[in-house]
Structure formats: structure tokens, C-alpha cells
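lol forgot to send this yesterday, sorry. C-alpha cells for the thing we talked abt
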């Protein structure tokens, strides 16, 4: 379900040149089980929806000796997201993702996106799950209009054999402080730079194919929201870092319950030795 996206269209104006975009995709009441690697559902385009579907077990890339696999077919070293998506005016609503080994629902960039009412679960035996829900715009940097609300992320995995590292993660600075060597055309950030200093780019754009420190961008007069979510039992329940908000970031009504001691080295030492400033619950 990975439809066409025009990555050269920084403004994401899909209606002005529909020949370069796929619109109107609908995934409804679908069940996908036991995906081995990559993603259970890849989804991209514009004005499209994934609704009321179930992803049950995706990948097994970080099991340790003595842990019972959630997908006992012998392939224990492959990662997989539940839902991987990007694009404009996309809706991911009322879905359930169980035991994804990388990220339950991950969003790679676009405007006017809704991630609403989904349930992400990590059960005993699942040792993966870097995040339940993650906003990682490596593609389009402008995420104005994004709404992440009424989602539930629950981790009941024990600390040795499982757990979700970050329940809801907004901003990709958890990954090498957002540093890339060859930025895409629609990205925002600090062009030709990736230093230890976190300098807000104030809407600056990356140069195509050049190094850049990627940031999420919300222009003036625009807004994004993180509202009325519940995260229980992740190592870090809410993790926010690398968001360039020139407009409004509405954060309200979120509930954080029973965060766990983390086995995730990056949470305390940074990624490959890099540390960063984050909002953490």
C-alpha cells in the first residue's frame, strides 16, 4: 500500500499535481499476522486511511537467550514495524498493533496527519519495540496539523525479555541526534551541520544530498497536538526531542503510568555516545 509521494513538493500540495501522488487508499478491518521483517503495513500517499485493523506480531530482532519468542518459527533476528507511513492528510485510527519488534506505528513526515485512538501492546516475550508510536520525519519536515491523540500504549513485558523503550516519541533526535549524511528534498533542519549543540533551525531547510541535523517543523500560525494519550509500563513513557515549533504545540491530558527501569543504554548515555536534551515522562 505504499503509494506515490512527490518528495520534490516541499509544500505537499498534492491536489495541484495529482499525477505524482496516490490518493484515496483505504485499509479497513484488515488483520496481518507474523510478519518477519521490515514492516507489516507500508502506507503512503495523500488523503488515505488505515482504520480498525490489527497487526499481530511483527519481527523478532532483539531476543536474548532464555526468552520465549512471540513468533516461534526460528527467525529471531529480524526487526519490523507494525505500520510505517508518510504523506499528507493521512489518518491512522482505531487500529491495534501487538508485539511489533521495532516501532508499533511510525510516521516519516507530512502535514495534516491524524494518529488517533490506536492501541499498541507489547506482551511478555517481545524484546523489541524501540517505540509504541513515533514521529520521525526523515522525509517531509513540515508536520503542521499533526494530531496524536487518544492512543493507548501498554507494555507488560518483563525488563529482561521485553519492553517498549519509548511509549510515544515525537522527534527523531533519539537516533544519532537526528543526523543524516544525505538529506531528502523535503526535510527541515540545520544544513551541513551536525554538532553537539542543539541549535533550533527556525524553519531552515536541509540541502538535498548533504549532511543535516533533522528537525520536525511547525510554521507560525500552525499547530500540532499531543493530547489525551495513555502510556503504561514503557521505559520512557513520553519522549520529545528535536521539534522546531514556530507555531503552537498543544500538549494536554496525557497520562503516564508505571514507567519501568530501562535496559536501553541510549536512554542514559545517548546514541553512540551522543547525549541530548529531551522532555521525558
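and heres what i got for the seq, position by position
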Amino acid at each position: 500500500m505504499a503509494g506515490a509521494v512527490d518528495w520534490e513538493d516541499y509544500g505537499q500540495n498534492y491536489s495541484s499535481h495529482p499525477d505524482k501522488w496516490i490518493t484515496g487508499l483505504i485499509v479497513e478491518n484488515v488483520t496481518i499476522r507474523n510478519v518477519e521483517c521490515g514492516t507489516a503495513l507500508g502506507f503512503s500517499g495523500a488523503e488515505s486511511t488505515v482504520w480498525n485493523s490489527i497487526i499481530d506480531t511483527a519481527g523478532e530482532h532483539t531476543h536474548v537467550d532464555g526468552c520465549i519468542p512471540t513468533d516461534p518459527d526460528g527467525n529471531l533476528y529480524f526487526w519490523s514495524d507494525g505500520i510505517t507511513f508518510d504523506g499528507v492528510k493521512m489518518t491512522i485510527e482505531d487500529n491495534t498493533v501487538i508485539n511489533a519488534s521495532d516501532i508499533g506505528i511510525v510516521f516519516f513526515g507530512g502535514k495534516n496527519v491524524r494518529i488517533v485512538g490506536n492501541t499498541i501492546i507489547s506482551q511478555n516475550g517481545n524484546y523489541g519495540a524501540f517505540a509504541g508510536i513515533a514521529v520521525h520525519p526523515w522525509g517531509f519536515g513540515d508536520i503542521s496539523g499533526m494530531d496524536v491523540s487518544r492512543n493507548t500504549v501498554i507494555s507488560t513485558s518483563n525488563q529482561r525479555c521485553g519492553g517498549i523503550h519509548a511509549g510515544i516519541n515525537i522527534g527523531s533526535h533519539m537516533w544519532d541526534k537526528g543526523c543524516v549524511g544525505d538529506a531528502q528534498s523535503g526535510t527541515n533542519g540545520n544544513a551541513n551541520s551536525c554538532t553537539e549543540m542543539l541549535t533550533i533551525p527556525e524553519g531552515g531547510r536541509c540541502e538535498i544530498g548533504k549532511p543535516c541535523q533533522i528537525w520536525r517543523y511547525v510554521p507560525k500560525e500552525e499547530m500540532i497536538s499531543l493530547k489525551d494519550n495513555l502510556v503504561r509500563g514503557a521505559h520512557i513513557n513520553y519522549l520529545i526531542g528535536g521539534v522546531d515549533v514556530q507555531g503552537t504545540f498543544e500538549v494536554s491530558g496525557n497520562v503516564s503510568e508505571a514507567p519501568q527501569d530501562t535496559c536501553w543504554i541510549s536512554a542514559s548515555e545517548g546514541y553512540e555516545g551522543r547525549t541530548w536534551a529531551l522532555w521525558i515522562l
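Residues 274-281 have pLDDT under 50 and may be disordered. anyway ping me if u want another try
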